[in-house]
Amino acid sequence: MATTSDIRNGMCIDLNGDIYTIVEFQHVKPGKGNAFVRTRIKSVTTGKVLDHTFPAGHKVNDVRVERRKFQFLYKDEMGCHFMDNDTFEQLALPESLLDSPQFLKEGMEIEILFHAEKDVPLTAELPQHIIVEVTYTEPGLRGDTATNTLKPATVETGAEVRVPLFIDTGEKIKIDTRTGTYIERAK
Predict the structure, then answer these.
(1) Domain residues for 48?
(2) Is 147's pLDDT higher than 80?
(3) Domain end: 21, 39, 62, which one?
(4) Based on the structure, what is the number of domains in the chain?
(5) Amino acid 24: pLDDT
(6) Please, what sign has the CA dihedral across residues 149, 126, 96, 20?
(7) Are residues 7 and 22 in the same domain?
(8) Which residues pair with 87 in a beta bridge?
(9) Which residues contact 107 (CB under 8 A, 6 or more apart)?
(10) pLDDT on residue 149
């Protein structure tokens, strides 16, 4: 059991029967009235982000979680299959537990968040940025860098991403997996 003074970013808490991660928090001491902690929390199971306020000194149920590195093997009708890099044990997860399953590449290393006491996977997080090859896009025109116009492109994972006009088929690009947006050309 922890109190509101123990709250920090990334901490997992049990609230109303669901597990939430603290995205951001702020201790507020108004001139009049009692102090409180304003938090922004994200549900681990549904991904919803909520604003929640705790009175100062309130007890919260903290949840012990472990982050383990796994390697993506393949996807089939049972879900996505991963291998633990340390024990070589395999694990199948439904796609609903993944942040962005459309960006999974074979051999990619991801982090799976486990409930420490129950040893149950809660969520799987892809790396923040990945480098993929463009498999198809309309031909680009030389010199089209002045405007901020985007065109659709299909990448090697099968996902569609909006890229600038100068990107051609066969080029490697860097993508933000959280938003699915183009960042830059890969070196």
Answers:
(1) 2-62
(2) no
(3) 62
(4) 3
(5) 92
(6) negative
(7) yes
(8) none
(9) 71, 72
(10) 82
- Of 168, 156, 162, 159, the closest CA to residue 181 belongs to 162
CA angle 99, 176, 108 (to 5 degrees): 65
Cβ contacts of residue 134 below 8 Å, gap of 6+? Answer: 153, 154, 155, 156, 163, 167, 168, 169, 170, 171, 172, 173
The confidence score (pLDDT) of residue 96 equals 81
Instruction: Answer for the pair 51, 42: CB distance below 8 angstroms, yes or no.
Output: no
Q: What is the Cα–Cα distance from 41 to 143, expressed in whole angstroms?
A: 45
Helix (H) / strand (E) containing 15? strand 12-15
Q: How far apart are CA 131 and CA 183, in angstroms?
A: 10
Q: Can you give the pLDDT at residue 81? A: 93
pLDDT digits (tens, 9 = 90+) for 54-74: 998 899 999 988 889 999 999
Q: Is 174 exposed, middle or buried (0-12, 13-18, 19+ CB in 10 A)?
A: middle
Mean residue pLDDT across the chain = 88
Query: Which tokens belong to 50?
Result: 């909520």
